[in-house]
Amino acid sequence: MSDQEILRLEGLEVHFPIRRSFIDSVRGRPAGVVRAVDGIDLSLKRGEVLGLVGESGSGKTTTGRVVVKLTRQTKGRIMFEGRDVSSLWSVGELRDYRRRVQLIFQDPYETLNPKQSIYDFVAEPLVVNRSAKGDERHERVMAALEAAGLRPAADFAYRFPHELSGGQRQRVVIAGALVMDPEVIVADEPVSMLDVSIRTELLRLMLDLRVERGLTYLFITHDLSLAWVIADRIAVMYLGKIMEIGPAETVIRSPRNPYTQALVSVAPSPDPPDAGTRAKRTILEGETPDAAHVPTGCRFHPRCPVAFDRCVVEEPPLFDLGGGQSAACWLAEPRAVMSPAPAADQVPVTQALPEPTP
Fold it and tell me: How far apart are CA 38 and CA 299, in angstroms?
């Protein structure tokens, strides 16, 4: 992994307007917005894997769609290799950017056209972006299929999706991204639809491609334990905000935000410690609030087991805790004297966590 920054999101916001009902219009009620992403800063270094973790509705998929410019941001900037690409929306301007930044979708069953051959699907980005023709196009498609593990490529190129297994379909989707020879890949839950045994193969493939092709990944997942295994850094997202970010080992072993602590406490482990040394599990109560009605103060406070008065009225910033770790929590504020302090039995123990499996 290089120290060179390849992608940066600055103050990113994505708000979707809510259509007013007839009664609201008559009564003059203002139309609201869904604050899917509500002001985040993220950066990706060349060659790294950044795991973006969160529950459904946290805004992680919307963030990924903004990066590949399938969704417009409401505010904020997207910087790619130091260049502001926030306003690139014409077909011509997007061609070069989308050649270099590609997306792997979650569901291969919905991504693939059942009437389109595997060859045509993988070749489609080349056709749309006018990147290659004739023999060059054929060579790039076959090379992409081979790189995605569909070997020999000739045995798969002219099949149709219904003739492939779920794992093979996802490899086709990966090949469709690789054919453009990208530098950044946004992988949105790329293995969540697959059996556990197939997941391991595809994750190993993605990590191998990272080395072979110098790829950078924004890896979106709801599975914190998976992010621990595959990512260099982890960003934990909740209701449109980054709650904690840092090196994967640090975030897992020493989480500083109560939301991260709760996720860590219930993360599955392949080698659980003895009952006497295992961290106490924190089961969050209630549902994630509606993104159209974000709570005041810290947006996690309605479910937080250690929330106090300040959390209700004032939203914490991301405090720099050193070592690349930051957390948005008043209890993590450096040199802060908090009152009341959380009870000892309320703070999840972060010791004796299992070693990640390679």
Answer: 11
Q: Which residues contact 196 (CB under 8 A, 6 or more apart)?
A: none
Distance CA 315, CA 54 (A): 19
Beta strands in 189-338 (DSSP E): 216-221, 233-238, 241-247, 319-322, 325-327
Q: What pTM does this model have?
A: 0.86
**Ordered strands of the 5-17 beta sheet:** 33-45, 5-17, 75-80, 83-84
| pLDDT tens-place string over residues 82-126 | 999 999 888 788 888 989 999 998 888 888 999 999 999 999 999
Q: Token digits for 243? A: 């709650």
Q: Rounded distance, CA 80 to CA 102, Å?
A: 13
**For residue 329, with 0-12 CB atoms within 10 Å meaning exposed, 13-18 middle and 19 or more buried, which class applies?**
buried
Q: Which residue has the tokens 């090379």?
A: 143
- Cis ω for the linkage preceding 340 (within 30 of 0): yes
Mean pLDDT over 275-283 rounds to 60
Residue 274's contacts (CB-CB under 8 Å, 6 or more residues apart) are none
- Phi and psi (nearest 5°) for 225? -65, -35
